[in-house]
Write the structure tokens for this entry.
Amino acid sequence: MKYKISKEFTETPGGRFYTDGDFSGEMFREEVLKSLLETAISSNEKIIIDLDDTYGYGSSFLEEAFGGLARIKTTKIVKEIIDFKSNDEPEQIERLKKYIEDASK
């Protein structure tokens, strides 16, 4: 299963929380990621999150969305089911993996 943030959520990811404005990491986690994860689990699929073609990601958006998901669903589940793709900023993938890993600490 593939999900491209710029096409299906926004080209302009926002801050950490709903209160920080539109398209926050919290909104992405609560309104998109949780559902994607449950669908992937029930259909025994992996999710490939495409990070390309946005105007950039703040660390607060990424940590809240993906680190927050790991805190809710466990780091192990998130690491097993979600993969990332980024041709624009491949270093972003390592940052995301660190946020997910650090969520269990």
Observations:
- Strands lie at 2-4, 47-50, 82-85.
- The chain has one domain: 2-102.
- The chain has a mean pLDDT of 96.
- Residues 2-102 form one domain.
